[in-house]
Write a structure and sequence with these properties.
Blueprint lengths: L18 H28 L7 H6 L17 H14 L1 H21 L2 H12 L5 E4 L15 E5 L2 E12 L6 E8 L2 E8 L5 E5 L11 E11 L12 H35 L1 E2 L2 E2 L4 H29 L5 H25 L11 H13 L4 H13 L6
Parallel strand pairs: 1-4
Antiparallel strand pairs: 2-3, 3-7, 4-5, 6-7, 8-9
Helix pairs in contact: 1-3, 3-4, 3-6, 4-5, 4-6, 6-7, 6-8, 6-9, 7-8, 8-9, 8-10
Bound molecules: flavin-adenine dinucleotide (FAD).
The site of flavin-adenine dinucleotide has 20 residues, from strand 1, strand 3, helix 9 and helix 10.
Length: 389
């Protein structure tokens, strides 16, 4: 097993995990070591998604892992979080794929779909036979999705949709897009299958971050849908926001994995690289950086474990998730940047995973609510004053 994937468990948190949770983590860790790491730098360099991994991920129960029924694994939220952590120890793009499939697309159908929609899509999505994407962001509306311009207007018994969604993970490889649009009553969601006339997806190229993940623009030009394509229980912005809370929960765990890989790499490098009289690890300034990394990873692990247990008890609030997403991703990004620094010139080449993780984490810090937007969510929570507008 790769040294970089070894656990960091300063406070013995493993004692608080069940044997099933540890087994799930080990299985995903091995999958990442054997099947992801050997090719991930090539995929990142070529801007390609490793679609060959999808059947195996499905076989391991990773899609909709914490959903019950419909062919989903029905794991608890800590096991689900550990899956995200190990996937992102490999690459944030791979974790993004799993998050979008599970927490955004499958969850949207699970929570807001009709029984017929659940039966039609969820088992096939759990098996990785159908891929989903989640279209909320628009070219001019990111942090403020309530300003969206995509419109659905009634047309007899059906709907006609027009608009553009941008920065949509999995867009061009998705068989079904969950698209959020404004109707007279507010915001609701629609299921749009690939090939529907008027609907098209185009990849966004030239990214320096998440290069091993597909990011697309979705264009809707007079897309005609039956009412059976509408998510009947999705009423208002709170529906997509509930999906985002699910995804942000997984991201908070995932960021620990990326940070851990960077820390492990920097620690090993500092121990072996000699400058002046000793290994880098023997200098106080370098130790300060390493200790800070280890401390922040350990704190992030504690936050996630507590959050996961609260979620299983039905006591996690969206603000708890904002706390974890904001803190863990912000710290992971700082850790990746510090690791890059410790590696010196070697920190910029793909012989080491650090620069890839660092670049990926720039996206993770921005999507699913930027660091600052989560600050505003928490600021509103503790002061009672909304500072968004
Ligand atoms: C690789 C990638 C994949 C993505 N995948 C998806 C996806 O699958 N589905 C989807 O719907 N979206 C997706 N997104 C979009 C992502 O969620 C948005 O980029 C994010 O919400 C931020 O929106 P924005 O980029 O428009 O930035 P903006 O909202 O324009 O924000 C720009 C800056 O202004 C700050 N800001 C904004 N409002 C305020 C305020 N009120 N007070 C203070 N500061 C503020 C922000 O914090 C940020 O620093 C993805 C993005 C990327 C990069």
């Amino acid at each position: 097993m790769s040294e970089l994937l070894n656990d960091l468990d300063f406070f013995g948190l493993d004692d608080l995990l069940s044997s099933e949770e540890k087994m799930t983590r080990t299985t995903v860790k091995q999958f990442v070591a054997r099947e992801v790491l050997p090719n991930i730098e090539r995929h990142f360099a070529d801007e390609t998604f490793a679609s060959e991994l999808v059947p195996r991920m499905a076989e391991l129960g990773m899609f909709g892992a914490n959903l019950k029924g419909y062919g989903c694994a029905g794991m608890n939220n800590v096991a689900y979080g550990l899956i995200m952590q190990e996937l992102e120890a490999g690459d944030s793009g791979l974790r993004s794929f799993a998050s979008v499939q599970s927490a955004l697309s499958m969850y949207a159908i699970y929570a807001f779909g009709s029984e017929q929609q659940k039966q039609r899509y969820l088992p096939e999505m759990a098996r990785g036979k159908l891929i989903g994407c989640f279209g909320l962001t628009e070219p001019d509306h990111g942090s403020d999705p309530g300003g969206m311009e995509t419109r659905a207007r009634r047309d007899g018994h059906g709907w006609v949709l027009n608009g553009t969604k941008r920065w949509i993970t999995n867009g061009t490889i998705a068989n079904v897009a969950i698209v959020w649009a404004k109707v007279d009553e507010g915001i609701t969601g629609f299921l749009i299958e690939k090939g529907t006339p008027g609907f098209s997806a185009h990849d966004i190229k030239g990214k320096f971050s998440m290069r091993a993940s597909i990011t697309s623009e979705l264009v809707l030009e007079d897309v005609r849908l039956d009412d059976s394509s509408r998510l009947p229980e999705a009423r208002g912005l709170k529906a997509p926001l509930a999906c985002l809370t699910q995804a942000r929960y997984g991201i908070a765990w995932g960021a620990i994995g990326a940070a851990r890989t960077c820390y492990r790499c920097a620690l090993a490098y500092a121990k072996s690289r000699k400058q002046f009289s000793r290994p880098l690890a023997g200098y106080q300034l370098v130790q300060n950086k390493l200790v800070r990394m280890m401390t922040e990873i350990t704190k992030a692990q504690m936050v996630c474990l507590r959050l996961g247990r609260l979620k299983d008890e039905g006591k996690a609030r969206p603000e708890h998730v904002s706390f974890a997403k904001r803190n863990n991703v912000g710290e992971a990004l700082d850790i990746a940047r510090a690791a890059r620094d410790i590696l010196g010139a070697n920190g910029i080449v793909n012989e080491y995973p650090v620069i890839r993780h660092m670049l990926n984490l720039e996206t993770v810090n921005t999507y699913e609510g930027t660091y600052d937007i989560h600050t505003l969510i928490l600021g509103r929570d503790i002061t009672g004053e909304s500072a968004f507008e």
